[in-house]
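Bumping my old thread because nobody answered last time. Still need a sequence for this structure:
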């Protein structure tokens, strides 16, 4: 069991990716994720704060002396305003950053019911939907095994 407090850049990256589509009305649904009072203007900061708070809860759960060794860093993160990242990296990089935050925030019992957990799940879903091929019209029938791909399971199992 371990946890560390993530960086301003990581929080800004995740929030920027979460609110990347200007046509998106994500802020309207934040109340269902446990964040009240969100508007299109303050929603990114509220989401950023929720992610930071959840990361901090995990650290406090793991370490009795969390306030002593990183309380100042937590307050610094909370005092920093969200700065949008315009040129986002590839979806895999964003997903990896989300995985890092999830790993550093999951050490307390309330993690899976937290707004941060729901937001990261939602972000992963958005990232998946933006991958090439996801929106092909074929849907369920989009993949068909090529005729020349006749791998026999018995050739893969050593006797």
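Sorry it took so long. Here it is:
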């Amino acid at each position: 069991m371990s946890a560390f407090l993530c960086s301003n850049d990581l929080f800004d990256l995740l929030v920027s990716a979460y609110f990347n589509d200007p046509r998106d009305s994500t802020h309207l649904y934040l109340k269902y994720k446990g964040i009240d009072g969100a508007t299109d203007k303050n929603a990114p900061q509220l989401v950023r704060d929720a992610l930071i708070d959840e990361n901090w809860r995990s650290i406090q759960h793991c370490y009795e002396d969390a306030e002593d060794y990183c309380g100042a860093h937590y307050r610094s993160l909370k005092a920093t305003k969200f700065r949008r990242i315009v040129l986002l990296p590839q979806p895999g990089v964003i997903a990896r950053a989300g995985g890092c935050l999830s790993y550093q925030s999951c050490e307390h019992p309330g993690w899976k019911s937290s707004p941060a957990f729901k937001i990261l799940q939602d972000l992963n879903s958005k990232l998946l939907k933006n991958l090439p091929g996801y929106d092909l019209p074929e849907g369920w029938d989009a993949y068909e095994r090529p005729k020349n791909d006749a791998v026999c399971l018995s050739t893969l199992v050593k006797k």
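The radius of gyration is 20 Å. Let me know if any region looks off to you.
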